[in-house]
Amino acid sequence: MKIVQNAANDTLTLGLDGELDASSSVLLDNELTKPEILNYRKVMIDCQRLNYISSAGLGVFISHLQRFQDAGVKLVFFNMQEKVHNVFEILGLDSLMTIVPSEQEATAI
Amino acid sequence: MIAFREKLLPAALPLAVLSWLALLVCMLLRAHQPAAAQWGTPPDWLILATQAAFAAGVFVYERSRPDRLRGAEFVPLLRQLLLGPGLLATAVVGLHLAGHWLLPETIGNQPILLNTLYTINLGLFVYFLARTCYTWRSLVHFRAQPSTRREWEWFELLLGATLLFRLVQGRELHWPLLPVMAVLAGLGVYLSAHQQWVAYLNRRQKWEVVFLQAAILGGMAVCLVYFLRLQREPSLAGPLAQHAFLLLTGFFAAFYAVMGLLVTLFNLPTAGVFEQKREEILSMQRLAQLIQKGQSEQEVYNLLFDSSVQTVEADAAWLDLADDNPTPLLEYQVDADTRQGICQLLSDYNIGHIEYLNNDLPHSAGFRALGLGYCSLIVMPLRSSKHHYGTLYLLKRFRQGFDRENLSLLQIFTSQTVLSIENLRLLEDSLQNERVKEELKIASLVQEGLIPKTLPADSWFEIRWHSLPAREVGGDFYDFLQLSSSRIAIIIGDVSGKGTTAAFHVAQMKGIFHSLMLLDRPEKGQPLQPSKFMAMANQALSHCLERSSFITASFYIIDYKERGFAFARAGHCHTLYYNAITEETFYFQTEGLGLGIIRDASYEKRIKNMYYDYNPGDVMVMYTDGIVEARNAEDEEYGEARLRQLLARSHYLEAEDIKQAIINDLEQFSRGLPPFDDQTLLIIKFKNAQPMA
């Protein structure tokens, strides 16, 4: 699992590369826990290279969802593979989180 | 030749006895004139021959006796020699000598008495000499090379030959024989150098040996004085005994005793070192034994400490363990100021935990400033490659108190100790591991107890299940509750994460399920709605589920009277269904958010109720993600599609057979790969029959 960070203006883009399982979700949690992340208006998660997400990985996003909402930070997922999208959908997260097909749409939000 | 010698050996003792009796008779005959006149006077050569035969008999007999030395019991060997023949010969000879001096008239005037006593004394002296020589042989042979044994045999042979000297010569020694005797004496001196046995004595034994040797020498001296005195005695009837042989054996016996005495005396100052080495070996043995016994750590440290202090003879010592405890584990004659001063200084020098030897403390300014009463210090850490267990400090009052041997010995002690401590800890760890395993087994049993064992038995539907946790305890759960004769509640779910934490939440979920079922009151027109159940479960869980955890569940209430069921899905896998009328196989596509994801009242809006009328022959397949996300060696997922196709092929089977078909297909797919996640499967097949009364 690799996390590529890209900050531009008020937007932070995190590119996830690999499998988000119990061990690698700790890395992601460390990134999202940083207080300065709340200074951004929008955090975009690039899921193009995300092949797999476990319940622990989902748990990381779930645990930060409320915190981001309270701070007014938008969390946007894009480029999600169908397999991963299916996992979000089954759990009902697609109605709770913003998931868009492409980067352009994500930037437009 | 050897066999011949063996046959001769038993004859040695009778020969000695008979020849001595013959000698006695000859001497008496010569001393008593009337008897001699009657029986004839025995010639000199006969007396000399009987003397020679007697000496030869005694020596050969002593030679053939088994070695009197048992193991390394030197002191008892010498004591036997002194208290047996030594004391006897000395006492009898001494008495005769004393009588001779004190009452010269009485004894001197009685030739018969004098000659009898002389013959007895000669016999005792020869026996004493023989015993001494062969005791010395035991000592010479102790741990000796074969070459030494051969040298000894030559010495014996040549000595035996000197017995003949006196027979062939007259009253005085022949000059040509002197070099031969000198060579033999030299050989005796050379053999006297074999005193290795002294090294095996401890200090006490060395003192004993010194006194024993001195006493033996004293006995010989008495005998020597006696025979010199009798040489000038006119009443002595026969010629004197074997000059060369007795002289040489006497010389050897005395010289070996003197050498032994000197060697022992010179070894006395180093006896302490020997004792110390012995103590070191014993300590090492004790340490090694303790390792095998597997005693407590405290005992191992005690043993190390005692052994170290004892063997290096430290004046003060202490042992610190590598924890923050300021008081040492063990201490010996040391006060807190000395300890703290030294530790502080060593850590200032940054050598707190390395091996350190200083034999001249007052020479270094730091230690001098401490004003210690000690001049030598060893610091010995107890460490393995990974761990530092503690440090041993030893002090001595004088300079150059410790040597390299002390240091290497302490290294052996400490490494033995570390080994032993590590062994104990490994043992402890494996026990702990065993205990954890045992507890997990219990947890697994408890969880198994939570899983319903009795089927809700009814003729209008069939239900079968299969559950396989990936570890000892799992995060999957399912449960049934018969609400009334025509209604049954079913729940299946999955807690995020695996193992023990998940297992706790499983137990919670089960509690929540059974509590909330009490709210179902259809008789009052208030049947429990599945969405309401989920909302209340979510609320209950929001207080006891950590923020990053969530639970997915599907909840069903099947009503036989209505021939339908209501259900809600909270983020759980879609329910697979086969409709027997339309002959279609499909997944219920309902919306619903997992439990614990949002924890306020808005959750209820995200859960939908769904109602469905079933037909006899319909099949419902409920499962957890461990089934559809099962992977094979190519890292492919089993998937919803494959499961649906399988049901489409097998819907006509009984519930048990459908279940078996799915399990078989899953196994075929994963080809023996162990399940990565918990797997749970529930199959319900609806029937046409009436419910049982």
Explain this structure to me?
The complex is a heterodimer of chains A (109) and B (693). Chain A is of the alpha/beta class. Chain A has a single domain (2-108), classed as STAS domain (Transcription Regulator spoIIAA, 2-Layer Sandwich), CATH 3.30.750.24. Chain A contains 4 helices and 5 strands. Chain A has a 5-stranded mixed β-sheet. In chain A, strand 1 (2-8) and strand 2 (11-20) form a beta hairpin. In chain A, helix 1 (24-33) runs parallel beside helix 2. Chain A starts with a strand and ends with a helix. Chain B has 693 residues and is an alpha+beta fold. Chain B has 3 domains: 73-273, no CATH class; 294-427, GAF domain (Beta-Lactamase, 2-Layer Sandwich), CATH 3.30.450; 454-686, 4-Layer Sandwich (Phosphatase 2c, domain 1). In chain B, helix 2 (12-31) packs antiparallel against helix 7, helix 5 (74-102) runs parallel beside helix 10 (203-231) and helix 8 packs antiparallel against helix 9 (177-191). Chain B is elongated and about 155 Å long. In chain B, 35% of the residues are buried. Chain A binds chain B through residues 22, 29, 55-56, 58-60, 62-63, 65-66, 83, 90-93, 95-96, and chain B through 494, 496-497, 547-550, 552, 570-574, 591-594, 596-598, 606, 637.
